[in-house]
Design brief:
Length: 442
């Protein structure tokens, strides 16, 4: 056996290996309540990344705990090839809050697997093999999902030894540091849509099964599309007979101010993929919402693929408890506070020259750092090695009791708190971030 790197025998013995592990000892979380988590020394942290953009209802929500307990006392597991009352009830409730044309649910386990399932369904339904996704996107880290991902660090790592095929990329409709040169967000949106149409025509419309895209970018930067962009994407999909899949693994379940992020664009997709917030991360669960035409086709033809733990009854029970929590004021809380959240973060853009852009929607925001003289990142981990100031900002914030997220590329910090946070907690988190930025850049 050969090794590409030397191994520290002390670091490699025993214990759980963290994911996204860079070698530094991660904090050990042992308890949580609402918007707070606690480490093994009892230190309190305001969790402004909801762990991995997923604990939407807050830690330890009683409705979710009760729903899980009740399900465990009845039946803990039912085969994914059979029907179950809890599974059916959750599917019906998801359909009730989804865009009108979405009528059925195909359950999965993780967001990566939900995106892979949606792509498999799209390919079988259309008879075409190609899927278009954005550069600088993230759709998962399994082999199939990584091939769809536009983030080079993820895709390159997974494809180092074996590459998946069947996807093509298009440029993201960003306003800040945009690849397009429009003078207004509307003009950038028009140019981005024209570029997408060029890619469709260049790849060959008949070869394309679907466009898979996040309605508001998640870890790739929390950026929303310019006004009108998604309406034009919907028109292009209709014109060229391509399915539109909205990846709501992060944007869904109240995160952006509505049940699903695409609803804030007033656009109906053909499919929605979901995970994370569906159970507020209490139990792994994911799935694909499909439109009535696809649902009817699946009902007749069936799907000769599956996963043992897809639609796990305990996960579905957690989903019902989480939906109760979202309906009981949590999504309203996002709508009520998103303006104040935006205003407080916008002050950072005025206060610090190093803050190049603040962008997002609802309770999903990015603060991106750029050199005011060049407009480029101070440090770009895709092409440089060394100390990353964005990482230093997060470390200082954590030392002062606030956990923040990282983005792809890591030239930013992302704020994605549980939906239960109040105005005082937003003020505290932004204040700590303000001080951390000052300590690193000023």
């Amino acid at each position: 056996m050969s090794h590409n790197a030397e191994v520290d025998p002390v670091a490699s013995v025993g214990g759980s290996i963290p994911h996204w592990y860079g070698g530094d000892e991660p904090v050990s979380i042992v308890d949580g309540s609402g918007a707070y988590v606690y480490d093994e020394d009892g230190t309190e942290y305001l969790d402004f990344l909801a762990q991995l953009y997923c604990v939407n209802a807050g830690h330890g929500h009683p409705r979710i705990v009760e729903a899980i307990t009740d399900q465990l006392e009845r039946v803990a597991y039912v085969s994914s090839a059979k029907r179950n009352d809890t599974r059916t009830e959750l599917a019906e409730r998801l359909v009730d809050v989804a865009p009108d044309r979405l009528s059925d649910v195909y359950f999965s386990i993780t967001g990566s697997e939900a995106n892979e399932a949606a792509v498999q369904i799209a390919r079988e339904f259309t008879g075409s093999g190609k899927v278009l996704t954005r550069w600088r996107s993230y759709h998962g880290s399994t082999y199939g999902a990584a091939s769809l991902t536009g983030d080079p660090q993820t895709r390159g790592l997974v494809e180092r030894h074996a590459a998946a095929t069947g996807s093509a990329k298009f440029l993201p409709p960003m306003v800040h540091r945009s690849p397009f040169d429009g003078d207004t967000p509307e003009e950038i949106g028009r140019q981005a849509a024209e570029h997408l149409e060029f890619v469709i025509r260049n790849e060959g419309p008949d070869s394309i099964a679907a466009i898979l895209t996040e309605p508001i970018a998640g870890t790739s930067g929390a950026y929303p599309a310019p006004p009108g962009y998604f309406k034009r994407v919907r028109e292009l999909c209709d014109e060229y007979d391509i399915l539109l899949i909205s990846d709501e693994v992060i944007a869904g379940f109240g995160r952006c101010g509505d049940w699903f992020g695409i609803q804030t664009e007033d656009v109906e997709p053909d499919m929605i993929t979901f995970a994370k917030g569906v159970t507020s991360a209490a139990v792994p669960l994911a799935g694909v919402l499909v439109n009535d035409e696809i649902g009817g086709w699946l009902g007749e033809s069936g799907m000769d693929l599956g996963q043992t733990f897809a639609g796990h009854p305990v996960g579905c029970a957690a989903g019902l408890g989480a939906m109760d929590a979202y309906e009981d004021g949590l999504i309203d809380n996002v709508r009520d506070l998103q303006g104040e959240f935006r205003e407080k973060l916008s002050v950072l853009e005025d206060r610090h020259d190093a803050v190049g852009s603040v962008h997002g929607r609802g309770f999903l925001w990015s603060v991106e750092f750029t050199d005011p003289e060049t407009g480029d990142p101070f440090f770009d981990p895709r092409i440089e090695e060394g100390e990353n100031p964005a990482e230093a900002v997060r470390e200082i914030a954590a030392d002062n009791g606030v956990l923040l997220g990282s983005g792809r590329p890591d030239v930013q910090v992302i704020l994605s708190p549980p939906l239960c946070v109040d105005a005082d907690q937003i003020d505290e988190a932004v204040s700590v971030l303000d001080d951390a930025i000052g300590a690193v850049f000023d």
